[in-house]
Amino acid sequence: MKLSRLSLSTVSALVTAAMLMLSFSIIFFGVMWVQGLYEQQYLSQISDNARLAYEMLDRGELPKEADFLALVQQLTPLYEDAEAELYLLVLKFGLGAALICSLIGYWLARKFSSPLEKLTRVVNNLREGDFSVRVPDTVKGTSEVAMLIERFNALAEELENMERRLRFNTMAVAHELRTPLTIVQGILQGMADKIFPRDDDRIQDLLMQVEGLTRLVNDLRTLSLAASQKLVTERCNTDIAQAAEQVLQASRSLLAEAGMVLETNLKRAIIPADSQRLRQAMLAVLENACRYASSGGYLRCESGYLNKEEAFLRIIDRGPGFDQEFSGHTIDVFWRGEPSRARATGGSGLGLSIVRAIVTAHGGRVEQASLAEGGACVTMIFPRKLAENKPDGTVA
């Protein structure tokens, strides 16, 4: 059994027991060995007849009376000296055992603290902003230390991913803001220089760009609320089918403009939800389908109970589907179904991220996949009952 597989408390108990046994063994066997040397020394100092009596007694035989009396008389003064030397001997071996156990304990302590020292150095690097640092898997330690290192590496990896997403999202926001701001600045500068007339068409162009900026800001605010767990605050029993009917009815013109033929199979499914946020998520999926899958000319919307614990809303199209690189993966902020960030397709890339944020806030999940016959399928899955909050405030 390896010590690295044991808990710290178990290792401490085993090491303590081993040190006690080692100390006892050093004192006991050391005293017995030196006592044997002293015995030979004392026997060399007594007379032959007294030594003979001692040997006979050691063998269990009865010596002569004269020899026994001589042995007693000669050993009495030696015994007094031997008693003092025995106490001193025990003290010496006790100190020696303590020194040896201290050295072994120091070595073991260094061995067990070494992973923590390495972890401390890595934590300092992480604190300085180097999120690529990791503690090597070769570092050994108790089970608690191994778990701590594993959790730290996972945390460092998550921080690195967050930092990478933050850089990407910052660049993406700058990109999304730059185009409309450039257009607005160009129109205003042209109107100020009297290159463009101050007519309704120019004002309409400005309003269109401002509306796009407003949508982007609102989308970012939605994601910010989701990150702070304040996106869904009020819930009531909501029928997914009824909410979908309302969204589809309001999106008739959008679907007609995209040339999409609508097909529905909406079955009643009651969930505890924020109806406004639920309709927002549905509308985001519809807009995404109209933007990227209009070439398929088909859209199907389904709802119902998935099982005894979950309900679903599924939207299927016959467009190009998701890229193989992204299909089945978690949708990130500013994720797009195509590599291009051209505005010809419209949108900021926040649509499906908002969908995921809203569904997650309801305790559900989003599943997206490309269909074998062509097209994409986005399924929003919601719990049928409101999950209990954990002590830390998150939803179980």
Automatic annotation (TrEMBL):
InterPro entries xrefs: HAMP_dom, HATPase_C_sf, HATPase_dom, His_kinase_dom, HisK_dim/P_dom, HisK_dim/P_sf, Sig_transdc_His_kin-like_C, TCS_sensor_his_kinase
GO cellular component: plasma membrane
Keyword Nucleus carried by entry: no
Record's keyword terms, sorted: Kinase, Membrane, Phosphoprotein, Transferase, Transmembrane, Transmembrane helix, Two-component regulatory system
Domain of life from the UniProt record: Bacteria
Reaction equation(s) it catalyzes: ATP + protein L-histidine = ADP + protein N-phospho-L-histidine
Transmembrane segments: 12-34, 86-109
Domain HAMP: from-to ranges: 110-164
Cellular localisation: Membrane
EC number: 2.7.13.3
Ranges of residues in domain Histidine kinase: 172-386
Primary localisation category: membrane
GO molecular function: phosphorelay sensor kinase activity
This protein's name: histidine kinase
